[in-house]
Specification:
The complex is a heterodimer.
Chain A: E1 19-29, E2 35-45, E3 49-53, H1 60-67, E4 75-80, E5 83-84, H2 90-95, E6 98-101, H3 113-118, H4 134-147, H5 163-176, E7 181-185, H6 193-208, E8 212-217, H7 220-226, E9 229-234, E10 237-243, H8 249-257, E11 275-284, E12 292-297, E13 301-305, H9 312-320, E14 325-332, E15 335-336, H10 342-347, E16 350-353, H11 357-361, H12 368-373, H13 389-402, H14 420-432, E17 438-442, H15 450-465, E18 469-473, H16 477-483, E19 486-491, E20 494-500, H17 506-513
Parallel strand pairs in A: 3-8, 3-9, 6-7, 7-8, 13-18, 13-19, 16-17, 17-18
Antiparallel strand pairs in A: 1-2, 1-4, 4-5, 9-10, 11-12, 11-14, 14-15, 19-20
Helix pairs in contact in A: 8-17, 14-15
Chain B: H1 2-5, H2 9-32, H3 37-49, H4 52-77, H5 85-102, H6 108-137, H7 141-161, H8 194-212, H9 214-224, H10 226-231, H11 236-263, H12 274-284, H13 289-312, H14 319-339
The chains are: A alpha/beta, B mainly alpha.
Pfam families (chain A): ABC_tran
GO cellular component, one term (chain A): plasma membrane
Membrane topology (chain A): Peripheral membrane protein
Chain lengths: ~525, ~350
C-alpha cells in the first residue's frame, strides 16, 4: 500500500500508486430525461493533479456534484479511499476529506482571512467564556499559509484582497479542514490572465503537500501547464484518461469537441443574395464584445461557435436589445434597430430563442396556453383588449401539433410539468410562429433528447427555406456544422475566424475555440 | 393558481386537514378563554349571521377589507409588494373628506363620484412614489410602502389637528362632509349601503381583467417571470408601475367609501389597521379576487361575531385578531404542500 506516499515527489507519479477515487460506470439521468452522464469510468490517483476537460454541457459539473454529495448517480458505483462511496449530503463528502472550491466565492467580506478560514470551527479557539483567542487562531492559519507559500496575512480583511487572493482564501478554507481531495471547478474563469500563472503555481504547491487535486477546466493551456493526467468528457461520456505526455493540446481539443458528423448528408442550402441583418463593428457596454461585424443573408444560417463565456451571451442580449452598445450599429433590412427595445424589434421581424428556457424563455408556472401566446399577445390575433380564448387555444394546439409537444394532460397545465425537450419544442414553435425575418437562436437544443433535436433542426431548415435568416449561437459544434452555411468562432468577444461551408474542419475550429490559434491577445499565455 | 385548481386527492386531503387544524386550534383558544368551544363558535355565528341586521353589519365590514386586500393583490400579480395599503387608505379617506366638507357640485351623485375619484387619486399618489423609486432607483418597495404608512399617519394627524380641524369640535377631526355626499343607507337600522355593491363590483371587474384581458395577462406573466415577460415584449416597468397605481387607487377608494358610507369625517384612529388586515386577507386568498371575497367574509364574521362572544361569555372580543392570526399561520405552513413551491 502506498497510502502514505511521500509528499514532495509529485511529478513522478509511479504506476504503482493506488487510485484514491474510482468511478465505475457512473450514469446520471435527470428527472426531465436528460442523460448528463453515461457510464462514466475513470480513476484519480493519490497525489496527482487530475484535469477533467470538456465543453459546456459535457457533464463536468454533474460529475463533480456527484462526487461532492449534491446529486446521487442513477447507476454505477464510486470507490473513495478503498471504500464504497455514496454520500447523501456534502457534509458527508467533507467528512471523508473531499473539498470543493466553487466558481462563486462564499466568503464574509468584512472579517479577516483567518476568521473566514476558521469560520464554523471557531469553537476550538474559544476559551471558557466564549472569547476567541486571536493569536492562537492566527498562528494556526498562518502556519498553513506558510506551507503554501502564499503572500497573504491572516489579518487581512477579505474586502481588501484582490479576486485572485480571495480565491486562494477559499482554497485555504478547504485545506484547513484536513481535506486531501480538492476539487477546483473552473478556478481560473474569474482570474485575469496575469493572475493565472500565480494561481497554477499555487495549485502545484497544493499537490506538493501530498493532496490530490481535481482540476476542471476547458482552457487547455492551463491544463497542460499543471495536470499529471487528463480525463476528457464529451456529451456525458468519457473519451479517455491520458497521461499528459501521451497527448498534446491539439489531440485533446479534438477529443473534447468530437469529430464532425457526415457533411455529405446536408440538404441543399437556401442562401439568397439579399442581406437581411447587418452588424457593423459592435462593442457592448460590458466590454465583452469587441468590434464584431457580420452580415446575415436571407435564408442563411450563420453559426457562432465558441467555448461558453466568450461573448455568446452578450451577442444574444445585444441583438435582443437588453444590452446597450458602446459603439457600432445593427441594421435590419437596411434600417437601424439599435435604439429599439425588444417589443419593437419583434415587431420589425426578429424572434428569439433564449438559452435559458426556465428563466427567460418560458414562465414555468403559467399554463401552456399562456406561454404559447407570449410575445404574440399584442399582435391582435387574439383580440385587441380581451383575450379570445378559443383563438388562443387554437394557436396553442397548432404549435403543439406542428412541433409534437407532448403535453400529457391538457393545455391548461403549467409548463413546469413538461419535460425539457417538450418545453424547448414549445418555445421554438412559438418563436417560429412569428414568421420572423431573423431568428436568433441561442443553444436551441441544449439538454434535449435526440428526437427533439432533430425536430428543432428540421424546423430551422424549413425556416431558412422560406427565406428567413437564422443566427445560431451554440456550444454544440456538431449542431453548428450540421446547420450553418458559415461559422464564426468567438474567442474573448472577438470573431477570430470565419469559415464557409464546406470548409469546416473540426480540428481547426477546436484550435480557434480553445485559443490555440487566432488569439491576438499575446499577454495571455494560458488561454 | 393553475396548480391549485388541478384537484388531486392529496390536495383535497391537505385542504381538509388545514381546516381541521385551524378549527381545533380556534377551539383550544376559545376554551382557554373560558368558554366551551362549541358554544363559543355558536356565539360567533349568531353574532355575525344570526339575524338580518347582524348579517348586514358583517357584509358592511367587508367593504374596506375587500378593497384593502385587492390593493395588495393587484401589485402582487406583477410581483410588487404593496405593504402601504394603510397609508393609502388614510390619504384616500382624507381626500374624500376634504372634498366632502369644502366643495359642493350641486348634484349628490356628482359629489359622490368626484369625492370617490379624489380618494382614489390620493391613494394612487401615495403608491406612486414607492413604485417610481423602485423602478428608477431599485429601492425596495416593501420598505418604502411600509414606511409610507407611518408618514401618512402623521400627515393625517397633523391635518386633522391643525389646518383641517373641525373648529366646533373638541376632538382632532375634520368637519362632517356635506349631507349631499353621504352614500345613503339601504336598510333602516343598519349602515349597510351601496358601498358593498361597489366593492364587490370592483373585485369582479378585477377578476375578469386578470383572467380575460390582454393587459391582465401581461400582469400575470410579469409577476411569474419578468425576464420572460420582457423578452416577450411586455413593458415590464410600465406594467409594474401601473399595478402599483391601481393598488394605491383601490386602497384610497376603500378610505373614500368608509368616509362617504360610514364615518362622514376623518378622525383620530380612523382605521383600526384595515390596510394590514387586507394584506393578511390577500395572502390567504393567494391574490385571487374571488377568494378575497370569501376570506374577507370570514374575517368579518370573526370580527362582528367576537363582539357577541364577549357579551355572552368571558372571552374578550380581541380574540378575533388571535383567530385570524392562527388562520394565517396555518395557511402559510400548508401553502407549500397544497399549492406547491413557486419559484420567484
Amino acid at each position: 500500500m502506498f497510502l502514505g506516499a511521500p509528499p514532495g515527489a509529485p511529478s513522478s507519479i509511479s504506476r504503482e500508486v493506488l487510485p484514491i477515487l474510482v468511478c465505475n460506470n457512473v450514469s446520471k439521468t435527470y428527472p426531465n430525461g436528460l442523460e448528463a452522464l453515461k457510464e462514466v469510468s475513470f480513476d484519480v490517483k493519490r497525489g496527482e493533479i487530475h484535469a477533467i476537460v470538456g465543453e459546456n454541457g459535457a457533464g463536468k459539473s454533474t460529475l463533480m456534484n456527484i462526487l461532492f454529495g449534491m446529486f446521487k448517480p442513477t447507476s454505477g458505483e464510486i470507490t473513495f479511499k478503498d471504500k464504497q462511496f455514496s454520500p447523501k449530503h456534502p457534509s458527508e463528502a467533507i467528512g471523508l476529506g473531499i473539498g470543493m472550491v466553487h466558481q462563486h466565492f462564499k466568503l464574509v467580506q468584512s472579517i479577516t482571512v483567518a476568521e473566514n478560514v476558521v469560520l464554523g470551527m471557531e469553537k476550538r479557539f474559544q476559551n471558557r467564556i466564549g472569547k476567541i483567542n486571536n493569536a492562537e487562531m492566527n498562528s494556526s492559519v498562518s502556519s498553513l499559509i506558510e506551507r503554501l507559500r502564499m503572500s497573504i496575512s491572516p489579518d487581512d480583511r477579505i474586502q481588501d484582497l484582490p479576486i485572485s487572493k480571495k480565491q486562494q482564501v477559499e482554497i485555504l478554507k478547504v485545506l484547513y479542514r484536513d481535506t486531501d481531495f480538492v476539487i477546483l471547478d473552473e478556478p481560473t474563469a474569474v482570474l485575469a490572465p496575469n493572475e493565472v500563472e500565480d494561481f497554477l503555481e499555487f495549485v502545484t504547491g497544493i499537490r506538493d503537500m501530498g493532496k490530490t487535486v481535481v482540476f476542471i477546466s476547458h482552457r487547455l493551456g492551463e491544463v497542460f501547464a499543471i495536470a499529471d493526467r487528463i480525463t476528457i468528457l464529451r456529451r456525458g461520456k468519457v473519451v479517455g484518461t491520458f497521461d499528459k505526455k501521451d497527448v498534446n493540446r491539439e489531440s485533446v481539443a479534438n477529443m473534447m469537441i468530437g469529430t464532425a458528423s457526415d457533411l455529405s448528408e446536408r440538404p441543399e442550402d437556401f442562401v439568397r443574395d439579399e442581406i437581411v441583418l447587418s452588424v457593423k463593428q459592435i462593442s457592448d457596454i460590458s466590454g465583452i464584445l469587441k468590434n464584431l461585424s457580420f452580415d446575415l443573408h436571407e435564408g442563411e444560417v450563420l453559426g457562432f461557435a465558441g467555448v461558453g463565456g466568450n461573448g455568446q451571451e452578450e451577442l444574444f442580449e445585444v441583438l435582443a436589445g437588453n444590452l446597450m452598445l458602446s459603439s457600432g450599429e445593427i441594421l435590419l433590412k437596411g434600417s437601424s434597430i439599435e435604439s429599439l427595445n425588444t417589443l419593437e424589434r419583434r415587431k420589425v421581424g426578429l424572434a428569439y430563442i433564449t438559452d435559458d428556457r426556465m428563466k427567460k424563455g418560458l414562465a414555468p408556472d403559467r399554463s401552456i396556453v399562456e406561454n404559447s401566446i407570449a410575445g404574440h399577445h399584442k399582435s391582435g390575433r387574439f383580440g385587441k383588449l380581451a383575450i379570445n380564448s378559443s383563438k388562443a387555444n387554437a394557436f396553442t394546439e397548432s404549435i403543439i401539433a406542428d412541433y409534437d409537444v407532448r403535453t400529457g394532460k391538457n393545455i391548461r397545465t403549467p409548463v413546469r410539468a413538461l419535460s425539457g425537450g417538450n418545453m424547448q419544442k414549445l418555445l421554438v414553435g412559438r418563436e417560429i410562429a412569428y414568421d420572423p425575418a431573423v431568428l436568433i437562436a441561442s443553444q436551441p437544443t441544449a439538454g434535449v433528447d435526440v428526437a427533439a433535436r432533430k425536430l428543432i433542426h428540421d424546423s430551422f431548415r424549413r425556416l431558412s427555406k422560406s427565406g428567413s435568416g437564422i443566427i445560431l449561437i451554440s456550444g454544440d459544434l456538431e449542431e453548428i456544422m450540421d446547420l450553418a452555411n458559415r461559422i464564426i468562432v468567438l474567442y474573448r468577444g472577438r470573431a477570430v475566424v470565419e469559415l464557409a461551408y464546406p470548409h469546416y474542419d473540426t480540428t481547426e475550429i477546436s484550435y480557434y475555440m480553445t485559443g490555440i490559434r487566432g488569439s491576438q491577445n499575446a499577454s495571455c499565455t494560458y488561454s | 393558481m393553475q396548480a391549485a385548481r388541478t384537484l388531486s386527492l392529496r390536495k383535497l386531503f391537505l385542504s381538509l386537514l388545514l381546516v381541521v387544524c385551524i378549527l381545533s386550534v380556534w377551539a383550544l383558544i376559545i376554551w382557554f378563554g373560558g368558554e366551551s368551544p362549541f358554544k363559543g363558535f355558536s356565539f360567533i355565528i349568531e353574532g355575525s349571521l344570526g339575524n338580518h341586521y347582524q348579517l348586514l353589519s358583517t357584509l358592511n365590514k367587508m367593504v374596506p377589507l375587500i378593497l384593502a386586500a385587492a390593493a395588495v393583490a393587484v401589485p402582487a400579480w406583477t410581483g410588487m409588494w404593496n405593504i402601504g395599503g394603510e397609508g393609502q387608505l388614510l390619504l384616500g379617506a382624507f381626500g374624500a373628506a376634504l372634498v366632502g366638507f369644502s366643495i359642493d357640485f350641486g348634484a349628490g351623485i356628482v359629489n359622490i363620484v368626484v369625492a370617490l375619484l379624489v380618494s382614489a387619486a390620493f391613494g394612487m399618489a401615495w403608491a406612486a412614489w414607492p413604485a417610481i423609486f423602485k423602478i428608477k432607483l431599485r429601492m425596495d418597495e416593501v420598505v418604502t410602502t411600509l414606511m409610507g404608512n407611518y408618514i401618512a399617519a402623521q400627515l393625517i394627524a397633523y391635518f386633522i389637528n391643525k389646518p383641517f380641524r373641525d373648529p366646533r369640535s373638541p376632538l382632532a377631526q375634520t368637519p362632517y362632509i356635506k349631507s349631499s355626499y353621504v352614500i345613503p343607507y339601504l336598510f333602516e337600522g343598519s349602515q349597510f349601503s351601496a358601498t358593498f355593491l361597489i366593492a364587490i363590483g370592483i373585485v369582479l371587474v378585477l377578476f375578469v381583467f386578470r383572467k380575460k384581458f390582454i393587459m391582465g395577462y401581461e400582469f400575470e406573466i410579469t409577476g411569474s417571470n419578468s425576464d420572460f415577460a420582457e423578452l416577450s415584449g411586455v413593458k415590464v416597468k410600465k406594467i409594474k408601475l401601473l399595478s402599483m397605481l391601481i393598488g394605491g387607487a383601490l386602497a384610497g377608494l376603500a378610505g373614500g367609501l368608509l368616509v362617504l358610507g360610514m364615518t362622514q369625517r376623518v378622525m383620530q384612529s380612523f382605521s383600526p389597521g384595515y390596510g394590514f388586515t387586507g394584506l393578511l386577507i390577500c395572502l390567504l386568498a393567494f391574490n385571487d379576487p374571488l377568494i378575497i371575497i370569501g376570506i374577507a367574509f370570514l374575517f368579518s364574521v370573526l370580527q362582528t361575531g367576537s363582539v357577541n362572544l364577549q357579551l355572552f361569555s368571558s372571552v374578550p372580543a380581541e380574540i378575533s385578531g388571535v383567530l385570524q392570526a392562527v388562520m394565517v399561520l396555518f395557511v402559510a405552513a400548508f401553502k407549500t404542500f397544497i399549492v406547491g413551491r413557486r419559484d420567484s
